[in-house]
Design goal:
With 468 residues, the protein is α+β, with helices and mostly antiparallel strands. Helices cover 43% and strands 15% of the residues. The chain contains 17 helices and 14 strands. The strands form two sheets. Strands 1, 4, 5, 6, 7, 8, 9, 10, 11, 12, 13 and 14 form a twelve-stranded mixed beta sheet that branches. The chain has a two-stranded antiparallel sheet with strand order 2-3.
Length: 468
């Protein structure tokens, strides 16, 4: 390098480093701004004590509101009876456990079973195969679009998930039926889904690129269909290795209320669904949402928020919270549980099994306020539907207004309060999102809203939230 050019380079580099050190870029933290920031921290003895405490403890324990630790009221004036808490373990199948728990409660009441459980791994097997097809066919449908297209990008970011919604329960079970838990038991991979899901997802992304290459070379539809079928064959094998072979037929030993064998029945998954399931639940329901970021009394549909390519997107009517509560109360009074989802991680005291906006006082601990309302939290991606449970009870005051709610969870019998969570009505207002209600509990004015042409929302909308 010539001496003159070297000098210019050195000077330019020195100027750049000097400007960087001084924070010379517009919008950056300048030395004067940094000094103001430093001066704003007073370092009081109270701050030092808090720093020592927070540095050596769980923030949640320090923020635990002792004033809210009084005896917990576990009485519910309206409660649907059920028996046996299920456990999804380390998987995102809460949507599936919840949907089957709603159906299970009806089965136990109808047949007088002391306990009963559908196999959760059986429909999960088909769910994963159907979602794999949803991804591959989505890649084919968008094959001529660039990889930078938002839909294409979304597909490759979300090739497979173990989460879902009630539409998945309805679409998968109505197509493949159900089996009892003993006909297809849990495996390590069904209870711990992350490794299996990551491997299948990796393979699906590879297959997605191959399909796009075929489309770029001018492959015809029938050629793409044959290739996709072969790819799904590989996915099927991976699912069998991880989850077991889904039974095409099986024997079921029916027992009486005392647990004594009564009859051995031969079934297919569809005949078992027809006898012990609730096919009406899979068709006569509506999905409700409380999303204050969007206009109420409108119908919305989220693209790709489905479990089968030929299935149904999550389609819902957006309603004020009080309207939803009235339908929930009507259902519970008629001994009918519901699929319910919320932002369960917000203000959860897991040891007590209590969801209450006053469980933790982070504001007092940190000396700052947290002032966003529900609408603002949704708009900033700070809150959304994260977990599905079975709405099983409500406690009403003398005027018929709800004081607290009860949900049957799927985190095992030792979790929360006897496998349940209790939520205050105020918490319900702030963090409840979705509810699935049978149509007979829905006023006609709400049913009419479902006849609207839905407002189509993209897959990357904040309301695309698969409960886990």
């Amino acid at each position: 390098m010539k001496k003159h050019l070297l000098s210019v380079f050195v000077l330019a580099t020195t100027a750049f480093l000097s400007a960087s050190a001084q924070g010379g870029g517009e919008g950056g933290i300048s030395p004067s701004m940094l000094e103001q920031i430093r001066q704003s921290y007073q370092g009081t003895p109270a701050d030092k004590a808090l720093r020592n405490a927070i540095g050596n403890n769980d923030i949640r324990r320090l923020a635990l509101n002792q004033e809210n630790m009084k005896g917990m009221d576990t009485h519910f004036s309206v409660r649907v009876k059920s028996s046996g808490i299920t456990d999804q373990k380390s998987s995102g199948r809460c949507w599936l456990f919840t949907g089957l728990n709603v159906m299970r409660a009806k089965t136990m009441a109808r047949f007088g079973f002391p306990s009963f459980e559908f196999s959760e791994v059986y429909p999960f097997f088909w769910d994963q195969l159907e979602k794999s097809n949803l991804f591959l066919q989505g890649v084919i449908d968008t094959g001529k679009l660039p990889m930078s297209d938002q839909t294409v990008e979304w597909l490759f970011k979300h090739p497979l998930s173990d989460g879902g919604t009630f539409t998945g329960v309805a679409d998968i079970v109505s197509k493949y039926g159900l089996v009892p838990a003993e006909a297809m038991p849990e495996t390590n991979s069904s209870s711990n889904t992350s490794r299996m899901a990551s491997l299948i997802s990796l393979k699906l992304k590879e297959y997605g690129l191959q399909l796009r290459d075929m489309i770029a070379r001018g492959a015809k539809a029938d050629e793409l269909e044959r290739e996709k079928t072969a790819m799904l064959g590989t996915v099927y094998r991976m699912l069998v290795l991880n989850l077991g072979m889904p039974p095409a037929e099986f024997d079921y030993v029916r027992k009486d209320a005392k647990g004594n064998p009564v009859e051995t029945e031969h079934h297919t998954p569809m005949t078992f669904l027809q006898k012990y399931g609730d096919t009406k639940l899979l068709t006569d329901y509506v999905m409700l949402m409380n999303d204050p970021t969007r206009e109420y009394y409108k119908t919305y549909e989220i693209d790709y928020d489905r479990h089968r390519y030929d299935g149904h997107n999550w389609t819902y009517v957006n309603l004020p919270i009080e309207d939803i509560k009235q339908m929930a109360i009507a259902s519970l009074k008629d001994s009918t549980m519901m699929y319910f989802s919320c932002d369960v991680g917000q203000q959860l005291n897991s040891e007590r099994g209590l969801l209450d906006v006053n469980n933790y006082d982070y504001a007092s601990l940190m000396g700052v306020t947290f002032g966003m309302d529900k609408k603002q939290r949704i708009a900033t991606f700070s809150s959304g539907s994260s977990h599905a449970m079975t709405l099983a009870g409500v406690d009403l005051d003398k005027d018929g207004k709800p004081v607290k709610w009860l949900v049957e969870n799927s985190w095992g019998a030792s979790s929360g309060w006897q496998g349940h969570l209790i939520m205050t009505d105020r918490w319900f207002d702030e963090y409840m999102f979705r509810l699935v209600v049978e149509t007979k509990y829905v006023p006609e004015k709400v049913m009419k809203l479902f006849r609207q042409e839905p407002i189509k929302l993209p897959a990357w909308d904040p309301m695309f939230a698969e409960e886990e």
